[in-house]
Design the sequence.
């Protein structure tokens, strides 16, 4: 059986913990065993937790720190692209995705791994597609090892084990998964397994090709075994590419189409970003938001049916998110998310780095919170944004945990 450390070394960006840390204080064990994020975050900062620079940035999103997480995100967008002057059609993004999904068996939605608002939008897509008859939800982040906790066994109301995924350590993502189960979805994992890896293929191009082929094969096997399933697949960045990238690489969506003959509807968020107001956007996104000033996610198309922004990732559609101002110190997009309600709790005095967390009351300590963020030093109250339910609240500092009580929303 693969253990946690071996798993992280094999498939996760978190590669090792310094031997200087005693086992009882291992940041990985505190994170996965107690739901304590700050020792792990501190370890990423002081390098006692060995991880790629990109993962350190992604982890900031899990803490609600958008400024850190999104600081360099727009650099991945094409600075030469601009909005054409012709008449354009603007459609509510959910409405347009639903329309385009009719008659399709597979929809693929991507995200930028540094952007939690893309995960909040996932919850909206899950709800809309469920009404259209979609039955299963598969995500890149779900662990796909035979001797590891597997999401396929989860049902509505079950606790979400942190070890079931990586990006689902983000409470926004975990809430989308919980909501999918409440809606009646069944979950599926498709990531490359250890037995599918060829250890001799170490070059980046070879590793990418191996992973994309394995993901496509695993999804094809799932679709064959479940002929009546209609599947929403959630991926990061280029995995949804239906065409070759600039380097001639073939990614998962293209391989899946070639393998199964199924033409997926591909919907990009990472190509357009929409990171404001906490980070700059690329030129195209700025022009779209300036011209149309949306209050909800939109899709923009030409009279010829060409979707603005989708070509960057050879997708069918691309979503632009509005830059909503913060509300009571929390992101405007989260405050506007359907079903979220504000609940406040007084905070005791604290010094230094702190994290406020809201857990589903029935979940064990080792579960992913429903909401969390880093309050500013001196904050007198926490402002949570949660769905209706019962929650236990707590304050985490590097020194330990303080219970803030329970609340029903």
Sequence:
């Amino acid at each position: 059986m693969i253990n946690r450390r071996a798993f992280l070394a094999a498939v996760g960006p978190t590669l090792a913990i310094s031997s200087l840390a005693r086992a009882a204080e291992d940041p990985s064990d505190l994170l996965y065993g107690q739901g304590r994020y700050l020792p792990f975050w501190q370890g990423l900062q002081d390098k006692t937790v060995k991880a790629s620079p990109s993962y350190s940035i992604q982890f900031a999103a899990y803490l609600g720190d958008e400024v850190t997480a999104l600081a360099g995100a727009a650099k991945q967008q094409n600075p030469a692209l601009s909005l054409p002057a012709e008449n354009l059609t603007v459609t509510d993004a959910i409405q347009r995705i639903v329309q385009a999904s009719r008659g399709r068996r597979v929809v693929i939605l991507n995200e930028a791994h540094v952007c939690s608002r893309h995960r909040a939008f996932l919850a909206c897509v899950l709800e809309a597609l469920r009404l259209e008859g979609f039955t299963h939800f598969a995500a890149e982040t779900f662990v796909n090892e035979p001797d590891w906790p597997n999401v396929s066994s989860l049902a509505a109301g079950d606790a979400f084990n942190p070890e079931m995924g990586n990006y689902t350590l983000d409470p926004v993502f975990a809430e989308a998964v919980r909501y999918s189960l409440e809606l009646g979805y069944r979950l599926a994992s498709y990531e490359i397994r250890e037995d599918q890896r060829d250890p001799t293929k170490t070059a980046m191009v070879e590793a990418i090709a191996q992973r994309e082929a394995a993901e496509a094969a695993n999804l094809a096997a799932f679709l064959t075994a479940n002929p009546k399933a209609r599947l929403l697949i959630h991926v990061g960045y280029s995995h949804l590419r239906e065409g070759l990238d600039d380097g001639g690489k073939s990614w998962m969506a293209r391989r899946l189409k070639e393998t199964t003959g199924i033409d997926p509807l591909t919907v990009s968020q990472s190509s357009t970003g929409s990171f404001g107001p906490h980070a700059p956007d690329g030129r195209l996104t700025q022009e779209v938001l300036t011209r149309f000033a949306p209050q909800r996610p939109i899709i923009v198309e030409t009279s010829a049916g060409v979707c603005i922004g989708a070509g960057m990732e050879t997708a069918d559609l691309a979503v632009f998110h509005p830059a909503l101002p913060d509300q009571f110190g929390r992101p405007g997009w989260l405050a506007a998310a359907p079903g979220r309600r504000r609940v406040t709790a007084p905070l005791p005095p604290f010094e230094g780095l702190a994290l406020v967390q809201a857990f589903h009351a029935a979940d064990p300590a080792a579960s992913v919170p429903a909401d969390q963020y880093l309050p500013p030093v001196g904050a007198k109250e926490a402002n949570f944004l949660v769905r209706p339910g019962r929650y236990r609240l707590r304050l985490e500092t590097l020194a330990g945990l303080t219970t803030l009580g329970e609340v029903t929303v």
Summary: The CA atoms of residues 16 and 50 lie 5 Å apart. The first strand starts at residue 14 and ends at 17. Confidence is low (pLDDT under 50) at residues 1-24.
